[in-house]
Specification:
By secondary structure, the protein is an alpha+beta fold. It has helices at 51-65, 75-83, and strands at 7-9, 14-19, 22-31, 34-41, 69-72. The protein starts with 6 loop residues before the first strand and ends in a 13-residue tail after the last helix.
């Protein structure tokens, strides 16, 4: 991997991770004390390596550290929270 560090690109509203020259990202919007995860994008060359999960776990950790509530608009984020209910306390509303 080029870098193990996930970067919060505040100007672009996304958490970023560069792996093997490819940029994966989890896009978000923050309004007040709520972060809405809108898209998770992993290039095809990186699929199946757990990159999206790493990005979302990092984003949720940041939300918790910043006392932000979470809206998982992105289906991947919602699925991640369903599989990892330890993050459910961050949700604005429970998942279906």
């Amino acid at each position: 991997m080029d870098s193990d560090a996930i970067h919060d690109n505040v100007e672009r509203h996304q958490f970023e991770l560069t792996v093997d020259g490819h940029l994966a990202r989890a896009e978000y919007e923050i309004a007040g004390d709520v972060i809405t995860f809108t898209h998770t994008i992993v290039p095809p060359a990186l699929e199946g390596r757990g990159i999206a999960s790493r990005l979302i776990r990092h984003g949720l950790s940041e939300a918790r550290a910043r006392s932000l509530s979470v809206v998982p608009q992105c289906p991947f984020v919602a699925a991640y929270i369903r599989k990892h209910p330890e993050w459910a306390d961050l949700l604005v509303e429970p998942l279906d």
